[in-house]
Amino acid sequence: MSSFLVFFIVFLAVIVDFCWLDKSSRKRWGWMNSWTKRDKVFFFVGFLAISVFVYVTMGVTYL
Prior knowledge:
By secondary structure, the chain is an all-alpha fold. The protein is built from two helices and no strands.
C-alpha cells in the first residue's frame, strides 16, 4: 500500500469521526468545544504532520 494512501485513510477516518460520527454525543471530541475553527484546523494539520513524521522516521530503517 502506498504511503499516501495510508495517510489519506488515517486522516479521513479522523475527520469523518470528528465531523460526522461524533456530532450528537460529543464524547470523544467534546474537549474541543471551546476551540475556534482556526485552532481545530491547526490541530488536524499538526496531527497529520506528526503522523507523517512518525511514519517516515520509523520506516527509514526499512528503506
